[in-house]
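User: quick one, fold this
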Amino acid sequence: MDSLAALIPAAGYSSRMGLFKPLLPLGDSLVIEKTISAFLTAGVKNIYVIIGHNAHLLKPVVERMGAKWIENTSYAQGMYSSVQAGTKILPRGTKAFFLLPADTPLVRAETIKKLIDLFKQDPAEVIFPVYSGQKGHPPLISSQLCPKILREEPAGGLKTLLNQAENIRLLNTGDEGILKDLDREEHYRQMLPPAAAGYPTSSECEQILRKHNLPEPVILHMQQVNKLAQRIALYLNSCGYRLHLALLQAACLLHDIAKGQKNHAEKGRQLLEALGYRDVAALVATHMNLPAGHTQVDEAMLLFLADKMIEGTEIVSLEEKKSKRKEAFAGNPAAQQAVEVRLQKALFWQQKVESIIGKPIMELAGESK
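Assistant:
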């Protein structure tokens, strides 16, 4: 099927979601992997992922999947710029191309195959898959429309351009996935299996915190811990991990919910478990000190590490922090020993993570999420 191609725009900021969509886990894959896999299974060979924001994190994933990437340096201008960037590099001889945003990961390979079969019978300018009377993704677009696409973006964007094509065909399908995208965090949670969906979204975390009247410095600290933990997790997912970014976010944003109370990690666990968030509660319970024998690169470790590396709202050197804390507890050997154990453990995990991602964690603080 060398005469067909697939363009997968994945260059955006994921601003409405708040979590970087392409590297979110979904089942046993990442979102971007699932989107690419649909085309591979359908037999499409020329697959191009258009990247921009977090391009350096997506490149390794795309390459591992056997697809190609195209970097759109104008991605801040919006989706249409990515469509144009992809259209420009379509191989000579391409008769038509699919357009499937990376955040629409539930399209079945069988639907793509049916679109291909229909195009072979009737090479229309555009073929839309349709579910329950609604057009969805991915449209199969004839290369005859490339000159129009490469002009200035029309009013109404690509949707208007495609709907004004002279020759349009519709493929009715039972594939509801053609309509399901990851626009917001609640949409992602709906796509997850029940066992992975038991966490509050960021907006729900805000509501929980408002009810408990936490001081502003505590809230700001938790937000900074989340930013650092998310950044580390993105690098790890880029390296082949499947860390649950949304669960991690909830745990980071709530880990100090019982701050000021004796044994606040345990009190926080009890509070969150009572709200029905058992997985988040389990992470919060160990954010002060991972249990002995913890060996996994997982969400609990990332919360623990990020919490130790953020002092107030600033990232700090663990070596310096250890020295200062031991001085602060001079004359209290038990407290000094507790500090030594926790921070030495954090240093171990810092070095472990850095060996995986190939970059000092201190350098990640300046990167946007």
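User: anything notable?
Assistant: The domain at 198-366 is CATH 1.10.3210 (Hypothetical protein af1432).
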